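Q&A log
Question type: sequence-to-structure
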Amino acid sequence: METTAAQGGGTFIFYIFLLAFVVMMLWSGRGQKKRDQERLAKVEALQKGDKIIIPGGIVGTVAGFKDNTLEVKIAENVKITVLKTAVVGFVNETQPVK
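Response status: OK
Response body:
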């Protein structure tokens, strides 16, 4: 009877680790989804003149809107068009660029 109990204990520990892994994955995925929703809400609320950060660390000012794109002024007489989903950050006057 002792060998049967010892063999079953390894399976129990495996299920505990599996359950902990599943909980951690669900918990981390929920946080990422919440951050994505907040970022998308901020992108939809952008106005002309807002400063944004796009991939590559480029800081620019929103100059215009089209369907799902933004026109971004990155230098004097230099404007580029980027997808709204390309916005990776926002620059506030009270908060330095990270």
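Response note: The beta strands are 51-54, 58-66, 69-75, 78-83, 89-91.
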